[in-house]
């Protein structure tokens, strides 16, 4: 059982503007707390609608320790469930993608319709009552072709995210995408270090030389001045073209469309499109992120998405997916090598950086350090958001414990 008083003491010790106390990156008890306080209560990006195109198609993944599945019902509705059989709890569908007219548990062949209702229970006794037995649902929402789930009974409000991100994302036409590449690696680092690393580009000039071939490195004041001028010109051009740009922020998300380096139209090794069949003309770089676990990039020729799902106190599964236009043909419009080389290189660089960070944090020499207010503002926003989730969950658990205590005394 998690010692909430200890978590509260550690939480209260965090200095505003500084990284977290060591235990938040290293302690198994804090990891267990995170699974419940954050990942079980946040909106989690799981993929694109294009991955679940027709009735019976599904996407199965795991959030924390909970296998989940998103399936398209026969009426076209996307439905989400815990991917756990109501018989003896076996995982029903293997992690990944598939298509089935009925969801059948491979253990004892209990079966479920696409709406989660129970269909078959072979060899159950006559007195068995199937009433009320169905797959347990989870919340599912979609925005401009992207799919999100939440495990909480009462999820955080979603409408602000939809209303503000959908206009930015719509020009990327992700409803016309197809998945062509997926890879998962395990970083030996706490999930918060992985997300902090993904939230800032303070390290990009040195850490990602290939990425900064087409993206502004923002390593010096001179870079920043050039960036501000480019943003002003880009915003004017997008406004004239009727394309939304700029930045929107919510409690748990950030999204913005911004320019690439002059002469570059995509985020590639040379700034040129890696896919001949485009989603749209050059409309810059659209990036959106969910503080809990995801960040994504939509360009004119492809979209790359990333999820960071904790699997251990110092283990995070990083999955990246790359999508192209549904009509693009491999070997004709693109090659996987040219499409994936930049992100494969960048993601392994990020893995090495996060693991290096974890090794230092593990040592006796670690003390929380100050974030750069200018260069690490998004990392600081992430940590501040995390602390807000921690505080809210501690308060709710304290209130619940107080109510239980009063009930027992009565």
From TrEMBL:
<dbReference type="InterPro" id="IPR015879">
    <property type="entry name" value="Ring_hydroxy_dOase_asu_C_dom"/>
</dbReference>
<keyword id="KW-0411">Iron-sulfur</keyword>
<dbReference type="InterPro" id="IPR036922">
    <property type="entry name" value="Rieske_2Fe-2S_sf"/>
</dbReference>
<dbReference type="GO" id="GO:0051537">
    <property type="term" value="F:2 iron, 2 sulfur cluster binding"/>
</dbReference>
<dbReference type="GO" id="GO:0005506">
    <property type="term" value="F:iron ion binding"/>
</dbReference>
<dbReference type="Pfam" id="PF00848">
    <property type="entry name" value="Ring_hydroxyl_A"/>
</dbReference>
<dbReference type="GO" id="GO:0016491">
    <property type="term" value="F:oxidoreductase activity"/>
</dbReference>
<dbReference type="Pfam" id="PF00355">
    <property type="entry name" value="Rieske"/>
</dbReference>
<keyword id="KW-0479">Metal-binding</keyword>
<keyword id="KW-0408">Iron</keyword>
<protein>
    <recommendedName>
        <fullName>Rieske domain-containing protein</fullName>
    </recommendedName>
</protein>
<keyword id="KW-0560">Oxidoreductase</keyword>
<keyword id="KW-0001">2Fe-2S</keyword>
<feature type="domain" description="Rieske">
    <location>
        <begin position="43"/>
        <end position="149"/>
    </location>
</feature>
<dbReference type="InterPro" id="IPR017941">
    <property type="entry name" value="Rieske_2Fe-2S"/>
</dbReference>
<dbReference type="InterPro" id="IPR001663">
    <property type="entry name" value="Rng_hydr_dOase-A"/>
</dbReference>
């Amino acid at each position: 059982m998690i010692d909430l008083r200890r978590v509260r003491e550690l939480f209260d010790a965090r200095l505003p503007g500084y990284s977290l106390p060591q235990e938040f990156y290293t302690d198994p008890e804090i990891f267990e707390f995170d699974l419940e306080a954050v990942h079980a209560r946040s909106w989690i990006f799981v993929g694109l609608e294009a991955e679940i195109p027709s009735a019976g198609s599904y996407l199965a993944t795991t959030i924390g320790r909970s296998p989940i599945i998103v399936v398209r019902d026969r009426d076209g509705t996307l439905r989400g469930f815990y991917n756990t059989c109501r018989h003896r709890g076996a995982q029903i569908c293997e992690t990944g993608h598939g298509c089935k007219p009925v969801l059948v548990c491979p253990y004892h062949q209990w079966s479920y319709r696409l709406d989660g209702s129970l269909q078959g229970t072979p060899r159950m006794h006559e007195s068995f009552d199937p009433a009320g037995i169905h797959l347990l649902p989870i919340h599912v929402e979609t925005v401009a072709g992207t799919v999100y789930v939440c495990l909480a009974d009462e999820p955080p409000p979603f409408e602000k995210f939809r209303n503000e991100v959908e206009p930015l994302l719509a020009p990327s036409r992700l409803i016309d995408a197809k998945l062509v590449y997926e890879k998962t690696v395990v970083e030996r680092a706490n999930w918060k270090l992985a997300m902090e690393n993904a939230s800032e580009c303070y390290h990009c000039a040195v850490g990602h030389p290939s990425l900064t071939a087409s993206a502004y490195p923002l390593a010096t004041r001179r870079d920043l001045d050039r960036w501000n001028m480019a943003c002003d010109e880009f915003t004017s051009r997008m406004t004239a073209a009727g394309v939304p740009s700029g930045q929107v922020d919510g409690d748990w998300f950030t999204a913005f469309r911004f320019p690439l380096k002059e002469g570059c139209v995509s985020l590639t090794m040379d700034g040129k499109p890696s896919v001949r069949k485009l989603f749209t003309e050059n409309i810059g770089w659209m990036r959106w992120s969910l503080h809990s676990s995801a960040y994504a990039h939509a360009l004119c020729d492809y979209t790359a998405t990333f999820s960071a799902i904790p699997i251990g106190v110092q283990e995070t599964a990083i999955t990246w997916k790359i999508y192209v236009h549904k009509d693009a043909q491999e070997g004709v419009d693109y090659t996987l090598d040219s499409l994936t080389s930049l992100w494969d290189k960048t993601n392994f660089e990020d893995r090495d950086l996060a693991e290096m960070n974890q090794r230092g944090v593990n040592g006796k020499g670690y003390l929380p350090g100050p974030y750069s207010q200018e260069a690490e503002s998004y990392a600081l926003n992430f940590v501040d958001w995390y602390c807000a989730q921690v505080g809210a969950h501690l308060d709710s658990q304290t209130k619940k414990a107080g109510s239980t205590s009063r009930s027992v005394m009565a």
